[in-house]
């Protein structure tokens, strides 16, 4: 188990977080959430040893294998895709070389030396089998296919792959290595919907430790059993998925507001006493006592999330024709490669259409057709009258000038100051309030740079928005506000995103792009958003009738019983952890300390809850180890 104690980190005068303590171990699948620029990536880098904290310690057992997926693009190595992924199986590769050496030694020796070599070879082969060595290559191919690589891509040189695909290669290598603790920073950013679904299914069955940062609430809800929220320089832990976190967080904030209100009343009452009796000699001691009590009192500060939300603003566009875009029998591609064939659909004014499908299927080509960057090879494409178009993609964050301030970068948009608007007020609607507008672009986090690029895209009035992965690097509150903004946007939206929650919340229709063809779907059908679940159910349906009763494999009763026991213990463990958080909250109540007896009872309850949670965790680990022991 990795343990962090009282971590603090600052950059100059700015404090990112203080007194952060956490534990990461087997069975804990933790999502780290928080606003852009709050220090999530910094915290991850401290945990894996890339950075050092200003204060506090991180304890990593020597035998703990930690795997880390950063947001930075991995370097090109000259290897093929498959060779690069196989580097994740270093233990298997090393043991495979050892087996080959021992095999040669057995063949070239005799007598006692041969007997010793033969024994060592048997032990090495047994160990190789235990760690899954014989299935490693097939596992590597399976992971690559799950992340969207075609079979032909497996042997392609890494140098031919784009940045997004190289990030997938790094993810595949990490998953193949199967570390004791997997730490990932925005793992879904470069994935399409199919790959996000596959990764979610893969991590649902992950029984080791996991910590990840993500803005995709569906992904968080499907994978995490704990939420760590980094907010206001502190970390709060919640047991359960994202939906549980939202409810528990609101309950906690309501409790904090009530406690803060009570403290405010107590302070006002004390100040009234001080003011009334300040100049009475007979009350001097009581007055001084209350003054000192106020000075020592730790004021309760409640973060008001509503006040911190950014509010994307859209200038009012002119009205376009009813038919915004129409494609009829369009074929498109590059030189000798045909990407799309016989594409026909029309988009009407005011609709929000999401393009979905695997990367490489033709979504970007379709966008290039609509933005007049690529002429059709065949067929007709027509944009309506009075259509003013603006598009956003991830490349726009890469062309920001790091030496400019946020305000100076916004002023590079042609016509942004024509209507005389206050640019600082406009930037504030995107979260760049007051002095934040004067920060250098190079000092912004990835999410903040995405917000700035969006601000530039939306700075002039348009009635057709084409957004390509607008939520990448955005924090969850920013994603929520983008969702709200798109729902009230008066124009037409064409959206490419892997964020299934955003699609369900804003889209009227889907255009599914697969194998060079497009399919129009009214509404948002689940079988399009969750294709792996559809395929899985079909597979089970097709395969189950083929087994006759006489050849069915009988379940292992002992193993089934053990799995049920593990599941029950895990549920009890979650309840115990919730009790720890409840008793911890009780200890934070200032009114508790007015009664010594109540304090003793609360401390005893908190210690008992922690002991029970630790006991159940140890039992869960013991039972899980028994289940995973080789038969």
Descriptive report:
The chain is an alpha/beta fold. Helices cover 46% and strands 19% of the residues. It contains 22 helices and 18 strands. The protein has helices spanning 40-48, 81-86, 90-108, 111-130, 136-146, 163-177, 193-204, 217-223, 242-277, 284-296, 305-308, 363-370, 395-398, 406-410, 423-428, 446-457, 476-488, 500-506, 526-529, 531-543, 557-587, 596-628, and strands spanning 2-11, 14-24, 29-34, 55-59, 66-69, 181-185, 209-213, 226-231, 234-239, 323-334, 337-348, 352-356, 378-383, 389-392, 464-468, 492-496, 509-514, 517-522. The strands form four sheets. The protein has a six-stranded mixed β-sheet with strand order 5-6-7-3-8-9, sandwiched between helices. A six-stranded mixed β-sheet has the order 14-15-16-12-17-18, sandwiched between helices. A three-stranded antiparallel β-sheet has the order 2-1-4, with helices on one face. Helix 3 packs antiparallel against helix 4.
């Amino acid at each position: 188990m990795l343990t962090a104690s009282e971590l603090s980190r600052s950059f100059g005068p700015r404090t990112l977080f203080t007194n952060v303590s956490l534990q990461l171990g087997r069975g804990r699948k933790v999502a780290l959430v928080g606003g852009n620029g709050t220090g999530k990536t910094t915290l991850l880098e401290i945990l894996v040893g890339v950075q050092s904290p200003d204060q506090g310690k991180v304890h990593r057992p020597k035998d703990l294998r930690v795997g880390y997926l950063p947001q930075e693009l991995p370097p090109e190595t000259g290897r093929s895709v498959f060779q690069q992924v196989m580097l994740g199986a270093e233990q298997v590769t090393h043991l495979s070389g050892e087996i080959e050496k021992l095999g040669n030694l057995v063949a070239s020796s005799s007598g006692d030396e041969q007997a010793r070599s033969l024994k060592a070879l048997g032990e090495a082969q047994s160990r190789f089998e235990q760690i899954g060595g014989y299935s490693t290559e097939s596992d590597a191919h399976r992971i690559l296919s799950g992340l969207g690589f075609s079979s032909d891509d497996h042997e392609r040189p890494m140098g031919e792959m784009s940045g997004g695909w190289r990030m997938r290669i790094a993810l595949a290598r990490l998953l193949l290595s199967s570390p004791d603790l997997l730490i990932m920073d925005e793992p879904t950013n470069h994935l399409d919907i199919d790959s996000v679904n596959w990764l979610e299914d893969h991590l649902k069955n992950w029984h080791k430790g996991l910590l990840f940062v993500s803005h995709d609430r569906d992904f968080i809800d499907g994978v995490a059993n704990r939420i760590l929220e980094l907010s206001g320089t502190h970390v709060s832990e919640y047991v359960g998925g994202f939906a549980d976190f939202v409810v528990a967080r609101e309950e906690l904030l309501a409790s904090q507001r009530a406690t803060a209100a009570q403290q405010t009343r107590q302070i006002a009452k004390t100040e009234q006493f001080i003011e009334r009796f300040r100049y009475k000699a007979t009350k001097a001691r009581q007055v001084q006592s209350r003054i000192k009590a106020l000075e020592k009192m730790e004021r309760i500060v409640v973060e008001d999330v509503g006040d911190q939300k950014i509010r994307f603003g859209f200038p009012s566009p002119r009205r376009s024709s009813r038919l915004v875009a129409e494609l009829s029998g369009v074929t498109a591609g590059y030189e000798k490669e045909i990407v799309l064939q016989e594409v026909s659909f029309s988009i009407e004014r005011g609709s929000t259409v999401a393009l979905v499908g695997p990367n490489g299927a033709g979504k970007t080509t379709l966008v290039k057709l609509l933005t007049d960057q690529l002429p059709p090879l065949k067929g007709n494409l027509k944009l309506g009258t009075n259509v003013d178009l603006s598009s956003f993609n991830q490349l726009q964050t890469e062309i920001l000038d790091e030496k400019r301030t946020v305000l100076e970068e916004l002023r590079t948009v042609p016509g942004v100051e024509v209507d005389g608007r206050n640019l600082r007020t406009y930037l504030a609607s995107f979260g760049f309030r007051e002095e934040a507008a004067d920060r250098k672009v190079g000092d912004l986090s990835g999410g903040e740079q995405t917000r700035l690029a969006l601000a530039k895209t939306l700075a002039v009035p348009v009635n057709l928005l084409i957004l390509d992965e607008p939520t990448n690097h955005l924090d969850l509150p920013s994603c929520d506000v983008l969702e709200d903004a798109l729902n009230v946007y008066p124009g037409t939206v064409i959206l490419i995103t892997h964020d299934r929650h955003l699609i369900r919340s804003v889209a009227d229709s889907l255009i599914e792009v697969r194998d060079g063809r497009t399919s129009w779907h009214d509404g948002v059908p689940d079988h399009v958003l969750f294709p792996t679940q559809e395929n899985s159910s079909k597979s089970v349906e097709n395969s189950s009738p083929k087994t006759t009763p006489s050849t069915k494999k009988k379940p292992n009763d002992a193993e089934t019983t053990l799995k049920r026991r593990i599941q029950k213990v895990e549920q009890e463990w979650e309840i115990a952890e919730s009790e720890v958080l409840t008793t911890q909250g009780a200890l934070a109540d200032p009114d508790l300390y007015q009664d010594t007896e109540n304090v003793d009872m609360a401390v005893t309850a908190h210690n008992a809850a922690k002991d029970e949670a630790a006991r159940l965790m140890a039992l869960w680990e013991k039972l899980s180890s028994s289940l995973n022991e080789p038969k």
